[in-house]
């Protein structure tokens, strides 16, 4: 009987310069898939109905919550980019590598996938269990690429708390999903077109 040989996988830390665009995309989709699975399982373990959590709201008022917070956050981000030195806002070049050559349709897909997966886990599952404050701390910690600088880490915390707040105010997960989507979409498009000009 022939013995099967399995390839050996080695997990190790990679610096942003070592990542290829393909590896970065694989990592992105893998982590978002994992985020989605954990979020769904967590909601089910809370004995909540996933369809109720993701139910489309009767009123379209959630759109104003999502658009309003996204507008405020994008303006604040723009102000921070002018006030704070570039090296203090550095994420190691990950966002540049992810969006600079990406087609527009792919940026839209990435923004949508990230918004749904992360909001389902963080607002839909975790915030329900531990509240918006601790959820925002956890959200800031998982955005590990910003942890080298306190300003972007603080900004991720504040943004997360804002997403949790509009979730509570609107009563629907679609408000933070919409807000998250718009922020990622506008940021991705800004990087994409800034690099082209």
UniProtKB/TrEMBL annotation:
Molecular function per GO: metallopeptidase activity
Pfam families xrefs: Rce1-like (PF02517)
InterPro entries: CAAX_protease, Rce1/LyrA-like_dom
Superkingdom: Bacteria
Name under which the protein is recorded: CPBP family intramembrane metalloprotease
Domain called CAAX prenyl protease 2/Lysostaphin resistance protein A-like: residue spans: 103-186
TM stretches of this protein: 23-43, 63-84, 104-122, 151-168, 174-193
Keywords: Hydrolase, Membrane, Metalloprotease, Protease, Transmembrane, Transmembrane helix
Organism: Paenibacillus taichungensis
């Amino acid at each position: 009987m022939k013995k099967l040989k399995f390839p050996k996988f080695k997990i190790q830390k990679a610096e942003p310069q070592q990542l290829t665009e393909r590896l970065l995309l694989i990592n992105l989709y893998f982590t978002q898939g994992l985020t989605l699975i954990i979020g769904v399982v967590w909601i089910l373990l809370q004995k909540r109905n996933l369809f109720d959590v993701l139910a489309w709201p009767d009123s379209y008022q959630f759109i104003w919550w999502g658009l309003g917070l996204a507008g405020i956050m994008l303006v604040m981000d723009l102000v921070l980019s002018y006030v704070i030195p570039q090296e203090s806002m550095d994420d190691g070049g990950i966002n540049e590598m992810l969006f600079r050559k990406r087609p527009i349709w792919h940026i839209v897909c990435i923004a949508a996938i990230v918004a749904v997966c992360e909001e389902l886990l963080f607002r839909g599952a975790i915030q329900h269990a531990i509240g918006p404050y601790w959820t925002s701390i956890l959200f800031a910690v998982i955005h590990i690429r910003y942890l080298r600088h306190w300003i972007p880490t603080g900004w991720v915390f504040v943004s997360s708390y804002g997403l949790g707040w509009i979730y509570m105010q609107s009563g629907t997960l679609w408000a933070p999903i919409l807000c998250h989507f718009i922020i990622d979409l506008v940021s991705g498009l800004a990087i994409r077109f800034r690099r082209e000009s």
